[in-house]
Amino acid sequence: MRQTFDESTDPSFGPKHVPLIRQAMAAQGLDGFLVPHEDEHQNEYLPAANDRLAWASGFTGSAGAGVILSDRAAVFVDGRYTLQVREQVDQGVFEIRDLVEGGVPAYLETVSKGAVIGYDARLHSPAALDGLKAAATRAGAVLKPVEANPVDQAWGSARPAQPMAPVVPQPLEHAGEESSAKRARVGASVAALGADAAVITAPASIAWLFNVRGGDVIRTPLPLSQAIVNADGTARLFLEPAKVTTDLPAWLGNQVSLETPDKLEAALAELSGKSVVVDPAQSSAWYFDTLTAAGATVVRAMDPCTMPRACKNAVELDGAREAHRRDGAALTRFLHWLATEGQINPPDEKEAVAKLEAFREATGVLKDLSFDTIGAANGHGALPHYRPTERSNERAKMGSLLLVDSGGQYLDGTTDVTRTVAIGEPSAEMVQRNTLVLKGHLAIARLRFPAGTTGSAIDALARMALWAHGLDYDHGTGHGVGVYLGVHEGPQRISKAPNTIALQPGMIVSNEPGYYKDGEYGIRIENLEIVMPAEDVPGGERPMHRFEALTLAPIDRRLIDKALLTAEEIAQFDAYHARVLREIGPRVEPEVRAWMEAACAPL
Fold it and tell me: Which family does it belong to (predicted)?
């Protein structure tokens, strides 16, 4: 199996490792040190060598932070990880605090006057550092950049090696546009900003721009590297020689020079006197400090690859559609198994995860999972980011819900889908809450909205039915998704949080409202959607957009109270299921197709 159920950390990590970190801090005259979750590339998912917060504390979530002072320490997490952090972290060493409410800045305001708090400039964005420095100043303390990271020093020879996965071409049949054309477009946008060059540090942007893929980041085909792209479209790509495959130089062409990462600092110094675009949200403070020290003028602007990468071309969208049909057939086989064998002998979480992975593997073209499958039975369903382990594994009970959030990586697309399935007879409350979640999902899916609309402007539509019953959920409604890239991809999203990025044609975004009852069950219904131009209507005055469902798989009809749905919602739901049957039915075995006939029958 690609997914394991082992735990890479345990609560002993804090007691074992914090004293070593404090020794390294003391040797540098530091009273404290900041330990962000992010690495040198601001990755969400990290290679083992860069998972410093996990090594220091034991916490393995995809978002968080740590502060280690000479006499106390704290780990900060958001609402997704409140249970997980208490299971993974020794609270005798680390205080558990909220990442969102107050967060690290509020904690820094409590440090002693005159304290020197170290930070690694390669791991923090400039925007984040500004807030941290202001908080330290209010406390009368100072933040000091370090040359050597105390966590890395304490980790020493036990630290895993940096990943060296080969970097391979992403064929034009999947990319849809030559790298030279992409670089010309990016170069033109750099010139439009009055700049001479852009420093690109986001691995997804590098993979997209040069039409390559790698394997340095778990579940995501990313190459860890950096690039400098000039306004004329030429580029310098800084890549470890061990990652360079024999056909890569010819693939990149003579307008791209391959250089080793140890040449990067000197290359930045060569930009002295020039204007250079750097993204303060995706590049660390080290780049800003290094360029400024070299005499370059830093232009703070969005990574020029971000928007063209988010707005997929026609080839990418056709590939994504085929990937989702293929993946939908695998998921439908799994749902058939749950609806038959799974109702007689309910599976445990590990069995469910393994079974679904096997169906995806049987396609013969699965490159990887797009994230570790969330197979959440019973009360674990109330934990939106739960991942089963050997220790936590539970068997689904009769009368319970099984929530399965999963996805696959294929050369032509990245999938992410959640289905909630009743095991045995669901309670009336489960059916009601699931139907409310479905109403929100359908509201987003059928929406027509004016060009220029942001995801934050439509998020409330997914929550209205829940709000009417005094209910809500604490995560966003949707995130961007790449094409054989990251399953979480910006800049678009659908959430309560303000977002200035309009939803534009070609963007892929998830539609995943949910409901979670602590300790009892969880519900989430997730499809991926493509933003598409909407057809004109008589009398219409503005260009409009709509969503096209990418994900094709049955939704459990046993969890729907038809009486709570409007005639429009019923017609919409039936039309979706008719499409699922039409497009997925021919791809599955006769017995699965026969089950689909009932599972996709009109309400």
Answer: Belongs to the peptidase M24B family.
Q: Quote the DSSP letter at residue 244.
A: B
Work out the widest C-alpha separation in the chain, in whole angstroms.
Answer: 73
Model confidence over 185-208: pLDDT tens digits?
999 999 999 999 999 999 999 999
Number of neighbouring beta carbons within 10 Å of residue 566 = 10
Measured CA to CA in angstroms, residue 184 lies from 168, 475, 479, 507 at distances of 22, 38, 28, 21
**In what helix (H) or strand (E) does residue 446 lie, and over which residues does it extend?**
none
* Fold designation for 13-158: Creatine Amidinohydrolase; Chain A, domain 1 (3.40.350)
Give the neighbor-by-neighbor strand order of the sheet with 374-377: 374-377, 400-406, 417-423
> What is residue 298's three-state secondary structure?
strand
Report the CATH fold assignment for 168-309.
Answer: Creatine Amidinohydrolase; Chain A, domain 1 (3.40.350)
Check if the beta carbon of residue 78 is closer than 8 Å to that of residue 52: no
Q: Residues 301-335: pLDDT tens digits?
A: 999 999 999 999 999 999 999 999 999 999 999 99
Tell whether omega for the bond before 491 is within 30 degrees of 0, i.e. cis. yes
Residue 74: Cβ within 10 Å count: 19
Q: Which string of DSSP letters, residue by residue, matches 94-162?
A: -EEEETTTTHHHHHHTTSPTT-EEEE-TTSS-HHHHHHHHHHHHHTT-EEEE-SS-HHHHHHGGGSPPP
Query: How many other β-carbons are positioned within 10 Å of the β-carbon of residue 91?
Result: 12
Full strand arrangement of the beta sheet holding 297-300: 256-259, 235-238, 226-230, 197-200, 275-278, 297-300
CA 425 to chain centre: 34
Other residues' Cβ atoms within 10 Å of the Cβ of residue 388:
23
CA atoms within 13 A on the CB side of 180: 6
Q: 54: exposed, middle or buried (C-beta count within 10 Å: 0-12, 13-18, 19+)? A: buried
**CA gap 39, 68 in Å, rounded:** 17
Burial 310-343 (b: 16+ CB within 10 A, else e): bbbeebbbebbbebbbbbbbbbbbbbbbbbeebb
Non-local CB neighbours of 265 within 8 Å, separated by 6+ positions: 290
Query: Could you name the CATH architecture of 311-599?
Result: Alpha-Beta Complex (3.90)
Is 290 exposed, middle or buried, given 0-12, 13-18 or 19+ CB atoms closer than 10 A? Answer: buried
**Integer Cα distance of 118 and 115 in angstroms:** 10
Report whether 238 contacts 260 (CB < 8 A).
Answer: yes
Query: What tokens appear for 166 in the block?
Result: 């080969």
The CA distance from 299 to 188, in Å, is 15
Within the chain, all domains assigned CATH 3.90.230.10 are found at: 311-599
List, by residue range, all CATH 3.40.350.10 domains of the chain.
13-158, 168-309
Query: Residue 467 and residue 446: Cα distance in Å, rounded?
Result: 19
